[in-house]
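User: Predict the structure for this protein chain, please.
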Amino acid sequence: MIRPITSDDIYQVAELWLELVTYHQPIDDAMPSPAMDGVQRYAARLQNSLDDTYAKVFVAENTDDNLVGFVVAAIVDLLPEMFEIERTGFIADIFVIEDYRGQGIGQQLVEAAEGWFRSRQIPHYEWSVAAANQAGYKFWRSIGGRDVMIRMRKELD
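Assistant: Here is the predicted structure, written as structure tokens:
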């Protein structure tokens, strides 16, 4: 079942966020590491999102009412001020526990975010996916995502 986050879910979602970060680290060592108090900081951010009209968090529960995934959606203006203002949806984070992947839960979470974006008259949304995360890239392509910008990095000596 997909539903909006409640205050009772916050710490568990923050723990899932840590799993998301941990998932990405072996994929590419350029991925950021969590701060020592990252879970607490993320939980505080989730708490603030409960009253934020520009953010929405949805969670996925299994049949035992345990959280198995989440998505964080936001409304942002991604362009600098020299461009026309363009409100855009943004998927900040999405994660599904490994044992529940391939069951359509990620797609259901995205559809919940899309429904919220539509209700706010947002014409499109964007997200970032780690370049080395082939499974993530394949997921986003499978639901209709297309490449718009490629973010690159060069290490300096």
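The chain has a mean pLDDT of 93.
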